[in-house]
Amino acid sequence: MKRTTRIWVHTRPALLGVVVMLALTSASVAVADEPSGPLGVTAEAQADRHTERIGALFGADRANDLKGGHYCTASVVHSPGRDLIVTAAHCVAGAEDGGLLFVPGYRDGKAPYGVWKVGKRYLSDGWAKDQDEDSDVAFAVVQDLNGRKLEAVVGGNRFTAGTETGATAVTVVGYPSSREVPIRCINKPTVHSRTQQRIDCPAFSTGTSGSPWINGDGQVVGVIGGHEEGGDTDDVSYSVVLGSEAAELYKDATSGR
Q1: Is residue 80 exposed (0-12), middle (13-18) or buried (19+ Cβ within 10 Å)?
Q2: Which residue in 61, 152, 42 sits closest to 104, CA to CA?
Q3: Which domains does the chain have, with CATH numbers?
Q4: pTM for this predicted structure
Q5: Per-residue confidence at 114, pLDDT binned at 50, 70, 90?
């Protein structure tokens, strides 16, 4: 598995039905642009405006000693509060509010866009009560830094539930615990089950849980986690199929419920 943590945190029940599906954006049914690059090849991710909104998670005790201390990946998603990140539920379920740090664009022990304290986290009851692999996605609110909002500093991708698995290729960017720079791979997701999707990308090892799957339109359509907490081999990773439960969780996180 990519990463393991299992302790209760703020939750909400899973909700299903037509009302939830109406919350999905119209972009979720559109055909996205394809990211450019060779498929199934993993390489170091270059620092640019796309990777600066993806970062590493640390325990709060590593604020002054970042190098070698990251354990999972998260990314900024657009929200009205301009302060929201998405990751895997198993990455944040074991911490208290204020017990984690998010460092966007992290490289070689440095925080080019600052060290941000993670506040309230949002997980579904499916994960908190049963560690249900179909609920392995979470959101967290990040506190302001020096009077500025996180999204104002690095931007954010759109969280988009309801997309068809494999409709287009996606770019996956994450932070292996054994490396101090992020890695990047492009490939087309495939169906693993009705509730899980998979992607073949080499070298996505421990630490890459929470890595976003981003299509060519800048939409987050997957997050490494889910089956086997993201996968028990480095070359195959999984994500929950982002459906009604994920859409409702995002709605709660953006409304502060």
Answers
A1: exposed
A2: 152
A3: 11-255 (2.40.10.10)
A4: 0.88
A5: very high
Q: What's the pLDDT at 76?
A: 98
**56 three-state secondary structure:** strand
Strands, DSSP E only, in the chain? 11-12, 42-44, 54-59, 72-77, 84-87, 100-104, 116-124, 138-142, 158-159, 170-174, 183-187, 190-191, 196-200, 212-214, 219-223, 236-240
Q: Mind listing the pLDDT tens digit for each residue in 38-94?
A: 999 999 999 999 999 999 999 999 999 999 999 999 999 999 999 999 999 999 998
Give the Cα separation of 218 and 213 in Å (integer): 9
Tell me the residue type at 5: T
Q: Give dist(CA 102, CA 75) in Å, integer.
A: 9
Q: From 172, 192, 169, 148, select the one nearest 234 (Cα to Cα).
A: 172
> In the numeric block, which tokens belong to residue 206?
């421990």
